[in-house]
Amino acid sequence: MKKRVTLTFPRRYVQMPVTYRLAKDFNVAANIIRAQVAPNQVGKLVVELSGDIDALDAAIDWMRTQEITVSFASKEITIDEDACVHCGLCTGVCPTEALTLDSQTYLLTFTRSRCIVCEQCIPTCPVQAISTNF
C-alpha cells in the first residue's frame, strides 16, 4: 500500500534520520517527493510511503510520538483549460509524466492517477493555468 504524506519536523528534530528509521524499524520505503530541510528551521518533507498497511500505520504512529506532524495529502493539481496554451513547458518538469502533450493534437493531457502533487509544474506554467485545489 502507498500513502502520500507531508511531514513537518520541529527545529530540534531536523537532524533525526527519519527515512532511515522508517526503512530499518518498520520496513517502510519513503520516496521523497519534495524536501525543505535546513538546520535550526522547521523542516517539511512530502513523501510517498510504501509498505504493508500495518507497518505504515505503525510508522505513522511512531512519527507522531516523535512530535513530527503527519498530514495526509489532500491537494490535487488543477488545470484551467481556458487559460492553458498547451506550450508543454510543464511536461518537462513533471517527474511522473502525469503531464504530457498528445503526439497527434499537441494538446496537454493530464493523467491525475500519475500525479504526486509535487507542484513543480505550477511555477513553470507561463500563463498560471496550473494550481492546487488547496
Tell how many strands the DSSP assignment holds: 8
Distance from first to last alpha carbon = 24 Å
State the share of residues found in helices, binned by percent: 10-25%
- What oligomeric state do the depicted chains represent? single chain
Structural class: alpha+beta
Largest sheet, spatial ordering of strands: 2-3-1-4
Q: Give the biggest beta sheet.
A: 4 strands, antiparallel
Show unreliable segments: none
The shape, in one word, is elongated
Taking all residues together, what is the mean pLDDT? 90
Rg for CA atoms: 17 Å
What is the H-and-E element order? EHEEHEEEEHE
Query: Helical segment tally?
Result: 3
Q: Beta-strand percentage?
A: 25-35%
Key terms for this structure?
single chain, 134 residues, 4-stranded antiparallel sheet, two-stranded antiparallel sheet
Outline the structure in words.
It is a single chain. The protein has helices at 18-26, 53-65, 121-124, and strands spanning 2-9, 29-36, 43-50, 69-72, 77-79, 99-101, 108-110, 130-132. Strands 2-3-1-4 form a four-stranded antiparallel sheet, covered by helices on one side. Strands 5-8 form a two-stranded antiparallel sheet. By secondary structure, the protein is α+β, with helices and mostly antiparallel strands. Helix 1 (18-26) crosses helix 2 (53-65).
Summarize, please.
With 134 residues, the chain is α+β, with helices and mostly antiparallel strands. The protein has 3 helices and 8 strands, in the order E-H-E-E-H-E-E-E-E-H-E.
Question: What's the arrangement of secondary structure elements?
Answer:
Blueprint (H helix, E strand, L loop, with lengths): L1 E8 L8 H9 L2 E8 L6 E8 L2 H13 L3 E4 L4 E3 L19 E3 L6 E3 L10 H4 L5 E3 L2
Antiparallel strand pairs: 1-3, 1-4, 2-3, 5-8, 6-7
Helix pairs in contact: 1-2
